[in-house]
């Protein structure tokens, strides 16, 4: 067990506080695996809780006048997170629930303090301001309260498992702090134990599996042991081919593991596996329904994974087979733009949806040229730039071949929808708020009618992708299923 004592004695904010000193002194008499929960320790925990709580509220309110970035802490954020901050009544320490709630409150304090620290560190607007003293004592104390709650709970009970996962979350956060990297070892151990307890081959086992893999990947970030990646890949490959929404995150984790392995170790085989994972487990049309309305996250993840790969090996240095795989990935990402747009959506909303794609067209174009594929470069550029025009073309379809009653209704609705969309986007509504609301209501009802008709068409045989992906459909068959060489990986180099 990672030690829960000593951490706050190094804090320049609280090290001289009598309550904190008493708490640390009481904890020092506990073993590394069990807290000796005495009346003295209980009082020290209670006193320290109030010290940290009141100090955090003071700091959050104190920084609000310093800059507009911190203004939400003046009231909105504090009231949302700490409704009774003016007269806080701490939950009872006599119950497990009370201990858990205190731990949650302390974790919330740490989250806000951490956000403030990040703002002072990264935002140029506030770098000239001298920040107040901020610390991690709230996180350390959250772990102490959690451990005591665990000791008071029957093992293998639902409450005990919930508290174990909560402790895993807290330790995972602390493991990212300098000097606490070894917490990741305990996180891995705890996650492995939770996975062993989960019923095999069930949906209930997915969450423990995901937690365990995430713990391995996090530990790899600290200690760079490729064995953690190898174990992650081996575990994930057992389930990622199954079509199920619950496995979406596992497929993303597999892509992560392969890309980290290449980024760390290099190697042609590792690059093949990394590119294949992105293509088949993240971008393939087979998984479209699982991403539904969050394809922007899918696109952002794919771009982040490629950036990781490019740090290790620039595009111009890739072998021909890797270049071809990369171009297929770009085609998959460009295809997502058409899914993100959605036929019949407002133009201004569509523009916002495409923010994650900023620079994608030029990047794909440039890399295709570097890979000596000018035709593909032009295709990428044209498809990326034709997203809005394609939506209009879809609305102007003839709808030939559809049952007459659906075709006629679509022919009636789509011209009106196109007109309303462009009218709402192209009109200056300043001073005409009432008319704007009326026109917006008409647009929304027309969009609803169009979506209902489109969904009815998709129920017909052969029309499952009606108004969906316009291009790459012909290539879908070979992009849907993962390649055999990826699914049958036995050795990780």
TrEMBL record:
Domain of life: Eukaryota
Protein name: Uncharacterized protein
Provenance organism: Hermanssonia centrifuga
């Amino acid at each position: 067990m990672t030690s829960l004592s000593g951490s706050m004695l190094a804090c320049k904010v609280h090290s001289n506080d009598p309550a904190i000193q008493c708490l640390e002194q009481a904890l020092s008499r506990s073993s590394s695996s069990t807290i000796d929960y005495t009346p003295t320790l209980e009082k020290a925990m209670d006193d320290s809780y109030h010290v940290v709580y009141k100090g955090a509220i003071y700091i959050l309110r104190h920084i609000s006048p310093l800059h507009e970035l911190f203004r939400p802490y003046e009231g909105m954020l504090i009231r949302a997170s700490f409704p009774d901050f003016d007269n806080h009544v701490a939950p009872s320490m006599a119950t497990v629930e009370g201990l858990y709630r205190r731990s949650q409150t302390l974790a919330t304090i740490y989250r806000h303090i951490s956000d403030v620290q990040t703002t002072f560190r990264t935002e140029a607007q506030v770098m000239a301001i001298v920040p107040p003293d901020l610390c991690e004592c709230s996180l350390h104390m959250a772990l102490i309260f959690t451990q005591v709650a665990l000791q008071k709970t029957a093992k293998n009970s639902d409450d005990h498992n919930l508290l174990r996962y909560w402790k895993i979350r807290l330790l995972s956060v602390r493991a990212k702090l300098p000097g606490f990297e070894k917490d990741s070892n305990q996180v891995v151990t705890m996650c492995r134990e939770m996975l062993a307890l989960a019923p095999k081959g069930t949906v209930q086992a997915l969450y423990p599996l995901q937690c365990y893999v995430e713990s391995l990947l996090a530990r790899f970030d600290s200690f760079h042991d490729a064995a953690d990646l190898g174990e992650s890949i081996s575990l994930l490959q057992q389930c990622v081919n199954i079509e199920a929404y619950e496995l979406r995150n596992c497929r993303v984790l597999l892509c992560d593991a392969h890309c980290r392995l290449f980024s760390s170790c290099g190697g042609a085989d590792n690059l093949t596996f990394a590119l294949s994972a992105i293509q088949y487990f993240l971008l393939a049309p087979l998984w479209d329904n699982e991403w539904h309305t969050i394809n922007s996250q899918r696109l952002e993840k794919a771009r982040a994974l490629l950036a990781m790969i490019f740090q290790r090996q620039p595009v111009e240095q890739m072998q021909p087979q890797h270049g071809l795989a990369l171009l297929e990935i770009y085609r998959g990402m460009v295809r997502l733009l058409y899914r993100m747009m959605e036929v019949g959506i407002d133009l201004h909303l569509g523009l916002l949806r495409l923010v994650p794609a900023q620079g994608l067209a030029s990047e794909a174009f440039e890399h295709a040229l570097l890979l000596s594929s000018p035709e593909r470069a032009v295709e990428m550029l044209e498809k990326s730039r034709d997203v809005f025009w394609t939506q209009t073309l879809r609305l102007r379809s003839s709808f030939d071949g559809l049952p007459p009653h659906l075709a006629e209704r679509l022919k009636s609705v789509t011209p009106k929808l196109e007109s309303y969309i462009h009218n709402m986007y192209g009109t200056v509504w300043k001073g005409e708020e009432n008319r704007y609301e009326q026109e917006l209501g008409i647009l929304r009802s027309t969009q609803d009618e169009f979506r209902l008709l489109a969904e009815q068409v998709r129920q017909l045989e052969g029309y499952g992708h009606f108004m969906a992906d316009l291009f790459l459909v012909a290539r879908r068959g070979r992009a849907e299923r993962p390649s055999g060489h990826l699914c049958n990986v036995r050795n990780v180099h």
